[in-house]
């Protein structure tokens, strides 16, 4: 039995999230279907990061096991089976006990705002045509890095055992009419990035002070966070593994 990691990207608009769910259209279900069709056996994959309904990914990983040899045109054939909004970017040899979720060192997300109406950004960002204090946004992002308990930014009905996350990067970038929140951590809670963004936008608009932001974080109460930003602005950008961990496999086109 061999274990493989696969690297995928997807546009989340048409899906009820990444993870397989009963009676729901999900990204992972499409990937498992494509793998099962090509390998002619039932494949059940394990994903590295679960994204919510409507959320996009430039890079996500899954692992699966099979005793069968991989087709010499594996990449081409899987991409031919997958729908247009999901792409297989790579496949990797890994140790037989490697787990795509637990071996990951960090995940990086971006949340994209655009400030002037743009039909080409409608499904790739959040139209937010309001005046904002960028310096206040940056200060709020810096405050986020001072904390490790993010209970406030986790949606209810989650089954995690801990709300502790190690934030490595938290900052905003501005490029013309695009304002982007960049955040990297070892793990994220359900709804966490959107909760951070929505709450910081209140700071940027002068509706929440920095002290009130601190109080909201320290309250460990999700009713003090604002999760009301749409999913299409959120992108899982990178899942990082130890150097040398992933060994790429080359295939014919």
TrEMBL record:
Residue numbers annotated as active site: 52
Gene3D superfamilies per record: Pseudouridine synthase I, catalytic domain, C-terminal subdomain, Pseudouridine synthase I, catalytic domain, N-terminal subdomain
Gene: truA
Reaction(s) the record says it catalyses: uridine(38/39/40) in tRNA = pseudouridine(38/39/40) in tRNA
Gene Ontology biological process terms from the UniProt entry: tRNA pseudouridine synthesis
Keyword Metal-binding attached: no
Occurrences of domain Pseudouridine synthase I TruA alpha/beta (ranges): 149-242
Complex and partners: Homodimer.
Its biological purpose: Formation of pseudouridine at positions 38, 39 and 40 in the anticodon stem and loop of transfer RNAs.
Keyword set, alphabetical order: Isomerase, tRNA processing
Top-rank taxon, per record: Bacteria
Stated family: Belongs to the tRNA pseudouridine synthase TruA family.
CDD domains: PseudoU_synth_EcTruA
The protein's name: tRNA pseudouridine synthase A
Regions that span the bilayer: none
Tagged with keyword Isomerase: yes
Organism (species): Chitinophaga niastensis
